[in-house]
Amino acid sequence: MKTALAWLKVFFSVALIxxxxxxxxxxxxxxxxxxxxxxxxxxxxxxxxxxxLTAAFRWSLIQKWLGDPPDxxxxxxxxxxxxxxxxxxxxxxxxxxxxxxENGHRIGDHKEAFFGVFIDRIAGLLGLLLLNAxxxxxxxxxxxxxxxxxxxxxxxxxxxxxxFGLLLHKLPAWQLPLWSSLQKLSTRFAQVYNCSRTISIxxxxxxxxxxxxxxxxxxxxxxxxxxxDLLVYLVVIPPVILLTLLPLSFAGWGIREGAMVxxxxxxxxxxxxxxALSVIYGLTLMAASLPGLWFFAHDRQWWQNNDTxxx
Length: 311
Hints:
mainly alpha, globular
């Protein structure tokens, strides 16, 4: 059943991209792609690698503040392996499951490992929402009013949800398994975000992580003829990223392309270079995750030795 569902997501992704390809000017598409040189691709790849490195450092700090033994190399390698799984599995959360499994195996507590990865995910999401809120405030007329209003509501829900999660452990304790787990998660949130210093560090790292990714898009977009500045990307890209989290396609493919073509059309962009941008950005994400393949293959011996010692 799971295999069939995975193949269905692959088919859905391919079908969406094919439908978009059939509806655009193919000649313009290939002309746009020809404008990208090797130097541009290497710069984009370097920026995406910088984004991954920053995110890995953010996660390592979260686990350190939660009391896990520090090991910068472990968190770096595990994050790259998680990124690889995100690009290979039908959803964008497969890598999180791998990180939970690997760190849980290391510290001997998968539930605590889940808390750390979940907090890391929320930190990344809040950084993205914060950038989007600031850009939307700076360019309030960029998108149609109803679209901008809808994004503003999503932002408000996101920030309110994060605040509620941070304060949930202060509410009365009810003898319900789910409520107890949520309060324990809230306690871990409060443990990480226990002062203005840790909040500033986490939000700063999250913002930098997403800024690197946005610069990837700006770099590729400029080479494709999309003459928009960084602030425009900060308005239009975060809603696209949120849509790719829906478990409907293979690693967000197809949904990302459709959403980008649609939202860029609202600001007057031609669909052909936008489709090219989305596809090349997706390939850049895959290329930037390849160190995870080397780490995964290299660490197999570690897993085998660990399992042997356990037996």
